[in-house]
Amino acid sequence: DLKLMLAYTTLMALGLITMLLGVGSALSVSFAIIFLVIHALYKACLFMLVGNLEKATASRSWKILHGIGHVLPASATAAIFAGISMASAPPSLAFLLKEALYMDMLQGAWPSLSALAALWIASTLMAGIAFFFM
Known about the structure:
mainly alpha
């Protein structure tokens, strides 16, 4: 179910936001607020796209909908742009934010490297799911 996959990525994003707020520095709180806005923008687009696909095909199953981009080209284009942002790939705002976040972590503003590892794992999973949508 595509909506279920999107919901799980929202949980990952909320975990990231909680981690950023837990660090407590002014920069990490700013990152949390900015990421919340970026996440809301691309996730709203993806949920609308899944609704559009469901209305057009009467299904939310990724097995049935895989490769339907040639039938719904406008939806496919929107999914590509939203997926790029979800994957934090260039030139999206999410890419710039995550790069700044990694630099902040590597400069020692964070209490441990486990937070960096958690961010990297979450980012990798989000990118994998984003490429699944594209």
